[in-house]
């Protein structure tokens, strides 16, 4: 299986890219793609059909419309969390890795403390005390999800810092800030992007899990919420698989597309973009 | 019959920047119990020749020509046969000993590897063979050495370990690719002596690839000079150092510390673009009009071959 | 002139009890502009450490380093900046000195930007320095991985020369290069010294190279520096 991926890496990356962009476009142009409005009501519990591609739910809303609009919320939560938490993680990792010593100890100490906080339970507890909302979820996840990114960036920064060109830069008189952002950062971009993709995947799955448990934002129909409603309002009992399978599969597919995309960012050595494969002899 | 005959070998790499012609029409002959030193700058194509013989080139390489080892064309055999030849009949010693050894396996385990793979010997026996080999290479206390790990040894000792391992199965041909790179003076002398001694004990031939002329001088019978993918001179070692014929060879000798560090002006040509005329002419003090227009072939002068119009 | 006065460096490692290793003890030596001081010694004896201290990259454990009579550890910004520009270091690994993700012209321009050379003068400055080190302008559009060891070393030297330094610490500058390329780089270094009055601290394990390049030779042994008498 590893060999299969290795030799056909190109195709996996293309499939991943295609799916990723497809989902993104669906989320952005949801208004144009969805056949009806979220609030429109028709006959309830309709099965798959030409007019209602995914049938209707218990109060008659078109499920295909819900499915299309659901992409917006789910992707939004995932991508925003990704952006915020990776930003925090990169900054902390860069500073810890570059300065070392006390700053490193301090930042890593903070990281350890954050790591100790149980993520999902905290969100559950906060949702119970405050009103559950998407904003709250994004906020809490951004504050908790940056730890692994910080560690990875820190170790890579420490690795790069010991490389000759950083020392040369110090010698030539470049300031610490310049070195961090213009010499070291370009060399860790290849790691930041996969970290981003992993964080987005994790955030999306967490949101879906929480929504499924009923702790998500009830006013916004994310895919997770859709599945929750499916189970809560009789979709599962009535065997209406078209209610909960599509959103579930979509989450899986989107995460998979990001995994495939991350293959494009594998680097064997700093500075090399391609792997040199020792292939069997061919004339 | 010669042990190794490379006939008109051409290797081209396809890269983003274009087609890199790494080896251009190179022919080499090595007889039994003979050492040939292949000399040239880094990037002139000498390592590519070694990799071609061992069939270890990356996927973007196109090879043309014949490589006859004991009568068989190595470019035509299948991978399974090739794997049985590597390590057993043709031994390889690479440049960076610390990188070639796996840090998580003991020395004894790695030196014993050829025995386990090619002779199907069991673990304990292979370790015993390792002890025998290491004492051969004049390691003191080989029994404790086999239990140690590469990081506990210096670069020089690791290289000796690699040499021991490479020669374990009495190969007919030893290919040593820059075995002394990065080591300091005393260590180089030691390694070369051991390499030569081991070669004599096994009656093997050796293809020694190096840019260090002193190393080439001490143990080779023949010298082949490569420049930008081509052979420019082929000559018995003693004759080379007494009177080098090709202007590049002369330049190399003048660069030596004992001759005053005189540099050759200019740079090696790109392997992607084709230079009109002789590849060396921009840097040659005797370049004539002819050299700008035509490419010299390898000309025979007494026992030598020289690629230069001066000897036409 | 750079002067080292009773410079010591210790290296401590290990846990729980730290083991101290004295790398350099009581080194006192004067390094002059326009002349080369050759530093020899076996690997790991502290030659690089000494070089980095002269270049101001490492602080000595004890002792002082003076630059034109001023203590570098006590220098205030304007003096420190002057020192930083004028004392440079060329490292051993040719590919290691340049940012692998930066094009050569970008690496060179960076240096000109910190010395606040105006943009319209930069092109000329770069062309001049490339000519000095013997490279054509073709190299500007390439990346370090596309250059050979000797070419990379020349670019690193070019970057240093853009700062117009007085003194360069050269840490095994030719050890990783072929014999013929080594001859070219050594020749270039000597020419630069002749034309610009540069001072060098030349570190190498190769006795012949040291002999060829140095006016004064020092051997580092067991943390002590022995200066070889002239003649």
Automatic annotation (TrEMBL), chain A:
* Entry keywords, A to Z: Cell membrane, Membrane, Transmembrane, Transmembrane helix, Transport
In what way does this protein cross or attach to the membrane?
Answer: Multi-pass membrane protein
Key word rRNA-binding present: no
Q: Which GO terms describe its biological process?
A: transmembrane transport
Specify the domain of life of the species encoding this protein.
Answer: Bacteria
Under the cellular component aspect of Gene Ontology, which terms does the record hold?
A: plasma membrane
Pfam families assigned to the protein according to its UniProt record, in alphabetical order:
BPD_transp_1
Alphabetized CDD domains for the sequence: TM_PBP2
Major site of localization recorded for this protein: membrane
Q: Does the keyword Transmembrane apply?
A: yes
Cell location: Cell membrane
> Membrane-crossing residues?
12-34, 73-94, 106-130, 136-153, 184-205, 241-265
Q: State the family it belongs to.
A: Belongs to the binding-protein-dependent transport system permease family.
Full protein name? Glutathione transport system permease protein GsiD
